[in-house]
């Protein structure tokens, strides 16, 4: 039977692109940091990266990007003065493994040098319990007696796209703890790495040079004996809210771990992860390929979920490196947030806290970007402060070598609506209003205010319009009345009104404070007006098709193949005003269909089918966000074969890592957490057919052909459920700890689910 | 003393570009047609063109363009079987002359072939009295007896950019009259050319082959004797409103002219032109260069002024060929109309009738272009029907070879305001309301309606805004609140209101009919509202500078030189969304300054100076419309040296013909009637300081250094004046036929000018 809880490979190669891809596939992370799936002996050239969440730095005029920490996990082994590397020619065999159960990375490599076989094996994990901590087991053994030198400690020579980000690197040693610290360029934030190791063999010395702070172990290894040591490293930065100096905190963290010991650390890691999997795993029977891909996707999401209390979010390439500037896009709210809010609300709340934290940046953007001029216009590419990291010119033109002006930053206004919708959904699905009270309501009102300041009134048509925007389909910039954007804006007004209504009933005092703080009371009637009279393109009465934006239907017909055939240069961009797609109906990614996915309770299956069938052949799927939107909507009107194909494509994107990693000369590689989220959405919301409404959950399963059983956990209004779906029955297991009895709508039939109950319902799968 | 009433050249060359330029410089025209300044013996390869006004045709998918008529002026001479051409190697000397006094073209060429010198001299003009008629005198003489063959008649092999436009060409002979007729491709309009000649020597035969219909004259020429014949050709098309078949009309026209005789025809031509010059000439003392250039410019305008009753307008390249599709742009209203309305209102009225004629096309455009959706959105490039000949993709990208999307057609909405303003100015300056009654009022109301349907209301700022437009500066497309455009739109609302008010007082019955026809009465309050609350960017309180559009001040500083230095390809376009000028403040042509020129009574000299000084260094002057706008405004705050330099540049553009004639592979050569008009405007409105208001003319002369005297005629409210300006005095001669006494404001001082009076006023030139 195939192991569906790990991946492993025996490949080793020194092709830089393979190293890069391997680094992504085998990465581990714990929300605080990501550690690329590189090997112990690797350095900067082999793309070692320990990418930190929520701390950014800029060197000169290059893009600001997340800071990579010095590598506290470094260990190299020399035999006879020759350093061994899995990329070198002394390798007999190599295997590396990523274990899903506790997010551990393991490697074993056998080297042969001058007749001696030497085996290195190691395991590492980033602690799910102690976010700053990394734990490593390292062993060597030889088949003959040999003189071996092991260097282990902290390597400050690390991979950076636009670095180096740490100035004044200094190495210290405090008792047996090694330290390497430095300061970011832009805001002089201190970053410190501490490392402790319990080496019970050899002669241990110390070596500190060239940004490395290492202990040197000289060992006369006996034949057949395994020498093992454990090392613990901790990363702290000035962003960490600790009561003592961060150097002390780092030392304490590694010392405490060492005292606890490796085995105990592993046990705690496994327990933590057991809990994560209990909440978030999805099991699929009958389809190992889908099971492995989906579980791997879920692993990715669980690993990069922000640390409690951090108010961090998940960047578009998560913690796999510095690509996309480590910035947070709409991806998080639209494609990752659903997974967390349905399975792990404590993580969902952090994602939204990040938006509260960056509200002032969004206010600054609204004031300066010239679209609206008030309220909150969230950054298209958001870093620490919420000021926009997106440049106005950010795609290379291969014909001129110049950067093309795009309007992602200044015209993709839907981002503010995406944030408001997720903010409200957190409350709507969890029933927990604490987020609204701690700033969520303020975000929502400011987003509505922004849309009001950006909307124009069409006097002749007696309606508000959202003009001059870029929708999800970035190939058609500066369009008017984009259905997705206008729908999202209209929803924001409705949510703002609902928020005020809710506060009026439940939190009148907080409402008064908030209204006074924002001086917004006079504007509320305008929100009502806009919620009623903001224009959203409606389905054509005859065809049911919704026009993506004003004039879309007048564009030229074409096909993706035809456009590609007309390309002169392989890297030419299809949008940016003059690209080949611009005068045509060819779109980059789901746009109207994205709206149907996001607002799937508002449109009939007939409308979904009509629009899906109209737009799908006209979609390039040039974004990893596109396939899953089409897949989810496809489940809703019964095109399960398509949905399955695109589900697999989405779920396997990071596992197979076959995506393009360079666009022009720009490195784009890394993980795709939005696709990971999209895979979960397609499985649970699509095939599982889950729709959580205001008052209850509805489930309309539409299992694809191969799947015999789909089993997943759901969290709703603070209570927990496990759904077990077959082709003919659905079993709802309600947690014994649930606070109340829920009515679950199974294939349209209301079913009472009391705490601790197990209710099995027969159903007929919708066609 | 230099002759300031003609130009001539002794050059002859066969470089195609020189032939092309020469053809423009020496063209003649009579409003019905233009005859390029080519020689009698020239054919298609030498760019012979007789371009007809107001008749268009399209072949396949090429651009629709004006039809060129078969060349009824063709004559070639052979000696000993060798055809003589001024471009050949037998030329001893050559001279060609354009006489301004009666718009006649003359040439004399001496050939030497096998020891014999043969002189060809000819003269030709297009009748100012009989628009369809061309008249030619042709003479030859030899210094030795020689056998000469003369072929004269109609040559159907003519130059076309996107032709041939005449199908089923057929040659006929009716008595002695030669005929060549054909039909346009698109709408099968018949075009016929008739030719008659009175040849009193030699043996005359007939030859008809290869699209030529010729008489062949075999002459045994005696030494020293001059043989002269006269020929008359007439062009008629199905557009001509004649009571008989156009073939008959053409035959009658040439027969009548032949009966009248050449000398009488010349006498009538001279008398007609005497009258034109009386009205429109401007004399400058002290500056022959300026005098010649300005008079040449005026000649161009007088030659291409539309035929009475034709309701034709003047294309951007007038009748010099088919460049720019023979289309009418805003150039006509903004840069040619002032010359005509001030000196020759009967021609101005035709220009505006053209807009009335094409109102339905403008209505169609409004309905389909997606900017507004009602009223009249005039074509950016207007041909017969008023449907837009401008393409969405009309500039070649040298990097990709593709055409760039520009927004000239769909976003340059100011065209409708330009039309409305000129329509109203005709009434305001002539006092003649017949144009308003015959459709001008309808045009004005429909333009206002268009702007109302295109305007959006900014609820927060409580104002209408005109969004997403292209102003005169075409490098910055799709901008909001362009000062020029918004000012013009606002003026249109005011004019619409004034029109209704005027009709209410003077033509209540016609008003009722009009309001009913347009169903527009309910909309009038909205026009009042828009006239009051439409936003136009105001001068900055500190600097006086008006922001060209929202966000202009935030663009990068640069210089024209810097941009040019950054160009990779000499033909790369600086606009179209990704061009080098787009992110910078560098503008193509006068925009804010164009507004200050158009509305020059509304802004103080201080504001003009501030904006001129801000924008001039940022202007590329990439359009021939730019220099004169800056020149006129420069006169108003005293930068006379700059004004003079740019006046000369503008006035000499067609005379020197040094402009670029190819942009990429697109031929752009031809005359520049807008610059011709701009030269007149700079001289009379700028240096002369003429401002005609609602009730009276004001004159604030600001003669440039060189000019001792400036003398011109003005027509105002149906009365005529001659202004004679020196550095210290201004003499107003009022025509004896004037209907009333006018008050002329001379340098701020009111002066009574009764019919037949000559009033001399001392003044001090403003600084």
Based on the model shown, name its key terms.
homodimer; 767 residues; alpha+beta; 9-stranded antiparallel β-sheet; 5-stranded antiparallel β-sheet
Tell me about this structure:
The structure is a homodimer of 767-residue chains. With 767 residues, chain A is of the alpha+beta class. The first copy, chain A, has 20 helices and 33 strands. A nine-stranded antiparallel sheet of chain A has the order 1-8-9-10-11-18-15-14-13. A five-stranded antiparallel sheet of chain A has the order 7-6-12-17-16, with no helix packed on it. A five-stranded antiparallel sheet of chain A has the order 19-28-29-30-33. The mean pLDDT of chain A is 95.
Helix content of chain A: 25-40%
Sheet with the most strands, sense and barrel status of chain A: 9 strands, antiparallel
Largest interface: A-B, 36 and 36 residues
Please tell me the overall pLDDT of chain A.
Answer: 95
Report the portion of residues of chain A in β strands.
Answer: 25-35%
Computed CA radius of gyration of chain A, to the nearest angstrom: 27 Å
Task: Break the fold down into its secondary structure elements and pairings.
The structure is a homodimer of 767-residue chains.
Chain A lengths: L5 E4 L6 H10 L2 E2 L3 E3 L14 E8 L7 E4 L2 E9 L2 E2 L7 E9 L4 E10 L2 E11 L6 E10 L3 E10 L10 E9 L2 E8 L5 E9 L4 E7 L2 E10 L4 E12 L8 H15 L1 H19 L1 E4 L2 H17 L26 H13 L1 H13 L1 H11 L23 E4 L6 E3 L2 H4 L2 H17 L3 H21 L1 E3 L4 E3 L17 H24 L1 H11 L5 H10 L26 H7 L25 H7 L6 H11 L10 H12 L2 H12 L1 H4 L5 E2 L2 E2 L5 H15 L2 E3 L4 E3 L9 E8 L2 E8 L2 E6 L7 E5 L2 E5 L4 E5 L5
Parallel strand pairs in A: 27-31
Antiparallel strand pairs in A: 1-8, 2-3, 3-4, 4-5, 6-7, 6-12, 8-9, 9-10, 10-11, 11-18, 12-17, 13-14, 14-15, 15-18, 16-17, 19-28, 20-21, 22-23, 24-25, 26-27, 28-29, 29-30, 30-33, 31-32
Helix pairs in contact in A: 4-20, 5-6, 5-9, 5-20, 6-9, 6-10, 9-10, 9-11, 10-11, 11-12, 11-13, 15-17, 16-17, 17-18, 17-20, 18-20
């Amino acid at each position: 039977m195939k192991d569906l809880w790990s991946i492993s490979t025996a490949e080793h190669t020194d092709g830089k692109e393979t190293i890069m891809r391997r680094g992504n596939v085998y990465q581990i992370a714990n929300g605080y940091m990501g550690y690329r799936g590189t090997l112990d002996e690797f350095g900067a050239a082999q793309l070692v990266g320990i990418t930190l969440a929520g701390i950014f730095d800029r060197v000169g005029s290059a893009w600001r990007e997340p800071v990579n920490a010095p590598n506290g996990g470094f260990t190299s082994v020399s035999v006879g003065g020759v350093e061994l590397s899995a990329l070198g020619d002394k390798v007999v065999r190599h295997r590396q493994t990523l274990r899903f159960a506790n997010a551990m990375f393991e490697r074993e490599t056998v080297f042969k040098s001058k007749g001696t076989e030497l085996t290195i094996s190691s395991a590492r994990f980033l602690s799910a319990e102690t976010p700053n901590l990394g734990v490593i087991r390292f062993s060597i053994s030889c088949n003959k007696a040999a003189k071996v030198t092991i260097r282990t400690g902290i390597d400050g020579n690390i991979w950076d796209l636009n670095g180096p980000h740490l100035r004044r690197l200094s190495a210290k040693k405090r008792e047996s703890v090694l330290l390497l610290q430095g300061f970011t360029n832009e805001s002089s934030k201190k970053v410190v790495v501490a490392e402790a190791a319990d080496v019970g063999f050899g002669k241990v010395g110390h070596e500190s040079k060239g940004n490395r702070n290492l202990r040197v172990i000289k060992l006369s290894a006996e034949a057949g004996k395994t020498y093992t040591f454990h090392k613990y490293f901790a990363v702290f930065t000035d962003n960490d809210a600790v009561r003592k100096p961060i150097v002390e905190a780092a030392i304490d963290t590694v010392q405490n771990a060492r005292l606890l010991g490796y085995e105990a650390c592993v046990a705690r890691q496994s327990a933590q992860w057991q809990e994560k999997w209990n909440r978030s795993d999805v099991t699929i029977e009958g389809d190992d390929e889908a099971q492995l891909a989906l579980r791997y996707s879920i692993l990715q999401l669980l690993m990069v979920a922000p640390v409690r209390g951090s108010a961090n979010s998940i960047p578009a390439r998560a913690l796999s490196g510095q690509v996309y500037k480590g910035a947070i896009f709409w991806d998080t709210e639209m494609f990752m947030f659903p997974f967390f809010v349905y399975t792990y609300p404590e993580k969902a709340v952090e994602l939204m806290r990040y938006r509260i934290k960056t509200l002032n940046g969004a206010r600054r953007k609204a004031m300066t970007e010239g679209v609206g001029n008030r309220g909150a216009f969230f950054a298209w590419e958001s870093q620490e402060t919420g000021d926009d990291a997106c440049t106005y010119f950010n795609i290379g033109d291969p014909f001129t070598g110049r950067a093309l002006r795009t309007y992602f930053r200044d015209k993709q206004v839907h981002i503010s609506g995406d944030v408001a919708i997720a903010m409200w959904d957190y409350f709507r699905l969890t029933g927990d209003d604490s987020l609204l009270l701690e700033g969520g309501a303020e975000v929502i009102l400011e987003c509505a205010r922004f849309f009001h300041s950006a909307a124009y009134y069409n006097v002749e048509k007696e309606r508000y319009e959202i003009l001059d925007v870029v929708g999800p389909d970035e190939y058609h910039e500066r369009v008017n009345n984009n259905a997705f954007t206008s729908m999202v804006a209209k929803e924001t007004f409705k949510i703002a009104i609902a928020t005020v209504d809710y506060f009026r009933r439940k939190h009148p005092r907080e409402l008064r404070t908030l209204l006074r703080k924002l001086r917004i009371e006079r504007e509320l009637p305008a929100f009502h007006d806009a919620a009623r009279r903001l224009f959203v393109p409606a389905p054509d009465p005859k065809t049911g098709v919704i026009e993506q934006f004003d004039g879309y239907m007048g564009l030229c017909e074409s096909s993706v193949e035809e456009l590609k055939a007309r390309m002169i240069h392989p890297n030419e961009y299809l949008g940016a005003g003059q690209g080949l797609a611009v005068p045509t109906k060819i779109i980059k990614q789901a746009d109207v269909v994205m709206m149907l996915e996001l607002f799937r309770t508002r449109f009939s299956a007939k409308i979904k089918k009509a629009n899906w069938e109209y737009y799908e052949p006209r979609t390039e799927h040039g974004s990893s966000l596109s396939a899953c939107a089409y897949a989810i909507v496809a489940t809703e009107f019964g095109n399960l074969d398509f949905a399955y194909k695109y589900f697999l494509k989405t779920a396997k994107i990071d596992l197979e890592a076959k995506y393009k990693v360079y666009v022009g000369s720009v490195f784009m590689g890394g993980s795709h957490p939005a696709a990971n989220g999209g895979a979960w959405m397609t499985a649970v919301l699509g095939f599982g057919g889950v729709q959580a409404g205001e008052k209850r959950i509805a489930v309309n399963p539409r299992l694809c052909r191969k799947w015999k059983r789909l089993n997943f956990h759901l969290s709703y209004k603070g209570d927990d459920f496990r759904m077990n779906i077959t082709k003919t029955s659905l079993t709802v297991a309600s947690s014994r700890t649930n606070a109340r009895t829920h009515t679950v709508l199974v294939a349209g039939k209301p079913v009472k689910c009391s705490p601790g109950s197990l209710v099995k319902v027969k159903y007929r799968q919708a066609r």
